[in-house]
Design goal:
By secondary structure, the chain is mainly alpha-helical. The chain contains 5 helices and no strands. The protein starts with 5 loop residues before the first helix and ends with a helix.
Length: about 190
Amino acid sequence: MAQKTLLTLYVSELKDLYSAEQQLVKALPKLVKSAETDELSEAFANHLEETKNHVTRLEEVFESLDENPKGKKCVGMEGIVKEGAETIDEFEGKVLDAGLIAAAQRVEHYEIAAYGSVCAYAKLLDRSDDLNLLKETLEEEKRADEKLTELSENVNQEAAELQEEIAPAAKTANREQLRARKTKSAA
């Protein structure tokens, strides 16, 4: 069995992140278009530009390592992106926005964990230039998550209010269906 080092793990994790970021560059435009509120759409558009910068920073790290960033697929991000696409197909309006925020926060939490790990490895491997680039991205991911939390407060409330408006009508329709069944069975 080949002996693996922390450096080998570091490069492997960076390749996973590179794949994840590439997938997000492709997925985020769909979120920009699907968001109901302008503020959420704008937040996704801004994060798309940040994500492109994340890719560039990772490419700089790979260049300093004399490594190719390609060759690994991040199946974790693939699954999270797929779930987000399902949300777009299943919901609409404010409820869709609430679902998009939840999906985007899953992405951010995944990235925060991954960037936290590679920052720790870069520090242990005494790769200070890498560490500075990776920390910059980690901080942007944390800010994106905070922005999503902030947006979710209004969006989730609006989705809940919509539910309150729909609930009485649904209860009335259910009562009418039940009466119709009782009348039909009595006849």
